[in-house]
Design a protein that fits this description.
By secondary structure, this protein is α+β, with helices and mostly antiparallel strands. Among the domains are: 8-63, no CATH class; 172-271, Fusion Protein Consisting Of Minor Coat Protein, Glycine Rich Linker, Tola, And A His Tag, Chain: A, Domain 2 (2-Layer Sandwich). It has helices spanning 9-16, 26-64, 126-130, 186-196, 201-205, 237-246; strands spanning 172-173, 210-218, 224-231, 254-256, 259-271. Strands 1, 2, 3, 4 and 5 form a five-stranded mixed beta sheet that branches. A hairpin with a 5-residue loop joins strand 2 (210-218) and strand 3. The radius of gyration is 59 Å and the shape is flat. 8% of the residues are buried.
């Protein structure tokens, strides 16, 4: 059985760095490692011993200096403040006497009058009522001195009620009694848009989809005018929607009180790629 010869750490380090660059720095760090380790261990033990000795040092220092004598403080208190008593509350008002008792009327059942004591009164004739001079009664009464009301021949309110003026030709309405309608209804309007709108190539290439809002005026004759772009999604979709709206046929105009009027209409046009 062969035994391995003992190799010291320094000799092992020389064997490891036999064919390496010792000036690089690793060789010096490994050579100085035992020395640095010993110093760190020594400093650590010193710090631990100092921390353990701090209570004994403080105890010895406290016994070296005598404690100051306690201070005898005497507090002199002045006389108590004068107690001011609040005045007693006023006595309550005397009770209000109850209201006097009102006499009540006892219900007396009606007593029928005998027939021989009942006097029949005939109503006046129609001719007598028509020939009377007074409007209310024939009794003359004295005046109280007040002036009788006069009749105003020119009242403040107009005698003739004028009809409202017809709507102006340039006035645009947003809400009317009878809204305008596309010929054939909403179904034909959607069909017209689907057949005439061409998806812009730029919008198709960039996958642009959404809703475009177009505002226009429908005149009294149903003609479409003043087309405006309210909302655009880009890619030429707004221009294409405006082009189709401008070429629309005449609509059925809106009416107010049976009179055709101009109506501002907003139409949403949706662009969607299949």
């Amino acid at each position: 059985m062969t035994t391995q010869p003992f190799v010291s750490p320094r000799d092992a380090l020389d064997i490891v760095f036999a064919y390496r660059n010792r000036a690089y720095g690793a060789y010096q760090l490994r050579r100085a490692y035992p020395r640095h380790l010993g110093r760190a261990l020594g400093f650590g033990l010193l710090l631990i011993g100092f921390a353990l000795a701090i209570p004994q040092i403080l105890n010895a220092v406290s016994h070296a200096f005598p404690e100051p004598p306690p201070l005898n403080m005497v507090m002199v208190m002045g006389p108590p403040p004068d107690v001011v008593l609040d005045p007693p509350p006023p006595p309550p008002p005397p009770p209000t006497p109850p209201p006097p008792v009102r006499a009540t009327v006892r219900f007396v059942p009606p007593t029928p009058t005998p027939d021989d004591q009942v006097r029949d009164e005939k109503p006046p004739a129609v001719e007598d009522v028509l020939n009377k001079a007074g409007d209310v009664s024939t009794t003359n009464r004295e005046s109280t001195g007040e002036v009788a009301p006069s009749i105003d021949n020119k009242p403040d309110f107009p005698a003739i009620i004028e009809a409202p003026a017809p709507p102006s030709d340039d006035e645009e309405h947003l809400f009317v009694q009878k809204p305008p309608a596309f010929p054939g209804g909403e179904k034909d309007l959607l069909k017209y848009l689907a057949e005439n709108i061409k998806y812009p190539p730029l919008a198709r290439e960039n996958n642009i989809q959404g809703t475009v809002a177009i505002s226009f005026v429908i005149g009294k004759s149903g003609q479409v005018s003043d087309v405006q772009l309210v909302k655009d999604i880009g890619g030429g979709c707004g221009k294409e929607a405006m082009r189709v709206v401008q070429t629309m046929p005449k609509w059925i105009p809106g009416e107010n009180n049976g009179i055709p009027v101009k109506v501002r209409f907003t139409l949403p046009v949706r662009f969607r790629l299949d």
